[in-house]
From TrEMBL:
The keyword RNA-binding does not apply. SUPFAM superfamilies: Calcium ATPase, transduction domain A, Calcium ATPase, transmembrane domain M, HAD-like. Residues 113-207 form the P-type ATPase A domain. It comes from the Bacteria. Signal peptide: none annotated. The keyword Transport does not apply. It is found in: Cell membrane. PANTHER family: CALCIUM-TRANSPORTING ATPASE (PTHR42861). Keywords: Membrane, Translocase, Transmembrane, Transmembrane helix. The chain crosses the membrane at residues 53-71, 77-95, 227-246, 266-285, 610-635, 641-662, 674-696, 708-726, 733-754, 766-786. It is a multi-pass membrane protein. This is HAD-IC family P-type ATPase.
Amino acid sequence: MKNQLDEPGGTTRVGGRGGLTAAEVAERVAAGQVNDVPARSSRSVGEIVRSNLFTRINAIIGVLFVIVMIVGPVQDGLFGGVILANTLIGIIQEVRAKRTLDQLAIVGESRPRVWRDGQRVELSASDIVIDDTIDLGQGDKIVVDGTVTSGDNLEVDESLLTGEADPVVKQPGDPVMSGSFVVAGSGTFTATRVGREAYASQLAEEAKRFSLVNSELRNGIDRILKFVTYAIIPAGVALIITQFVVNDDNFSEAIRRMVGGLVPMVPEGLVLLTSLAFAVGVVRLGKKQCLVQELPAIEGLARVDTVCLDKTGTLTEASMDIDEVLQLLPDVPAEAVLGALGAADERPNASLQAIIESYPAPEDWRRTATAPFSSARRWSGASFVEPSGAESAWLLGAPDTMLPAGHSVLTAADSYGARGLRVLLLARCSRPLDVLMEDPAAVPDAVTPAALVVIKQRVRQEAPATLRYFADQGVTAKVISGDNAVSVGAVASSLSLPGAERPVDARFLPEDPRELADAVEENSIFGRVGPQQKRDMVGALQSRGHTVAMTGDGVNDVLALKDADIGVGMGSGSPATRAVAQIVLLNNNFSALPSVVAEGRRVIGNIERVANLFLTKTVYSVLMALVVVIAQVPYPFLPRHITLVGSLTIGIPAFFIALAPNKERARPDFVGRVLRFAIPAGTLAATATSVAYLIARSVYDDNLDAETSAATLALFLTALWALAIIARPYTWWRVLLVLTMAVSFAVVLVVPWLQEFFQLKLVGVAAPWAAVACAAVAGLVLEVVWARMRRRLDAK
């Protein structure tokens, strides 16, 4: 016999139409009436090239390079080649990251269901045209503006656009805006505004992805660059004047010495290596099917100290199995009713999908009304005309929201929940569904329990190891779920989560923000949490100074994901969830989160090390310029010397250090920690070099090349000592890196053609050994200073 659960109409159900024809679509595409605003997950290639090439630092270095090329030999312009090479590396790595990011974004993008030529097809959002008819169901993100053409208890959440948390019921003729999402019911709408005319597109114009706006690391580097700018302007002006006065008989030499003093003041590779480290992180995470939609998320998750986990789909697998059905009313055909309810829902959630797989739709049950599932109500329902002609209405949902407190059935439900099982109540309903949807509080008086549906949830295999990782890293895990608190506590107990023995029913949490913050701070396991409550709990944790990450996969998680410092969505989750999350786990693998934390820590820790080196160079360059100005002597270095020392003690090592493994925990006050090393290290390097230079000037009789060689030796050894400190704790490759740099400099000093190329030759014994002694004293003092500072930092 024919199954009559579905209402008649077939594919022409929308106003007697089956959507646009291919010809009509072609006309609109030709007219430019297409949703041509792609969901950009990264910058264009042109933007990448411009941002890496046309920078303030490159402009400064470029001008100095042109000046040197006019007056000096090519070896004094080596710094220009280094900048070009670094920029090319940055462009190549970022383009590589862009391709990875774009490929992953395509996999994780929302694909609306659109009616075309009488068929419902899945399309990319960018393929939608004006007048397209688009299907809507629970969890769907609305990708263009339009007008509702049909609705079955359709409720839309517009909070991401308007800030209003309450869902809005949509009737035919009502407008819907892009950027909102469906929380209950189903329907269709006709696209009226697409592309840049759509509301969400207009709001998003200034919010491009691939930005580092909220990055503490990038903000810290910007502050450092401002400090550098303020320092080098007066020092640079004074140096320029001094070199023209001191070398008044040799204009070309004055130019070269002046450029030699200005070039090292600019931390040219710091911004580049920061972008490079992030880009490499994107590629590495992309290989693990982890889509980083906003780059600061790599850094942000490494700084998180509290992670809020949704149980279903995160700690447990999204798919479920029916364990048993406990009949409460003997005369009720529970299996047939469950099959009918499953077939009546076009967008079944995980629980209903398990029912559908176990109980096929019965024949000759005609649906007359439906009440879609809502996270706020926590039940769904439908009314039918049964084969006998009798009319009946049924609800399926959470027992503790459908029955009054103390009901005997709740005791049985809790006994299952204590074993970590999910329990749904099938109840006969005595009132119209639309009345109960308007007044959910009337449900307990309107239902008669018919059966308990017990569902098994499978704990993800990777969950225990992932939770142990967070615990070892000092990250507090809190489970925030819409399920029964006892059931959530049982799952948490199986994972050995602290506080699992004290699950909290969120319906009884205080509304006062301070009291709520106390409750959330003191407890770890929460059940029966509503969508707005999840958002409030995230805010409560943030109010206590916590950096919060939120994971989730359903529409009830969207608001909390948006407000959390880092939102982590599942690839199988709703389109709305994926849209607001900064990180999407495309393979739904919870175990990928430690990889994101590790990448963030690698980036933060390594960039801090690199910043120490670059800022040390800036400090000693500024101080050396001041010494030269006060002493009224020629600047001790030519550009080639600075290029050599900078490449061997900063540039080359920094490249390897920035991309190396690093598991150090992220700590606040990035700028403060960098300056605590760079200022004493740069001061000691400048002091050692200045003393060695002045000693050499007293030893040699107007031999500037010999004086420069002695000063270069002192600077290199002191800078190498600073590199050796930054490279700790030592591994084989770090030791090899430091030794390779030392050997490379020694080769320059002993190979004749390199001596001539770099204009470096140690003369005599007194000045070179004095330079070594100055560097050794500076290095020992730096060891003492840094040891004391390190103890203070570790004590905080």
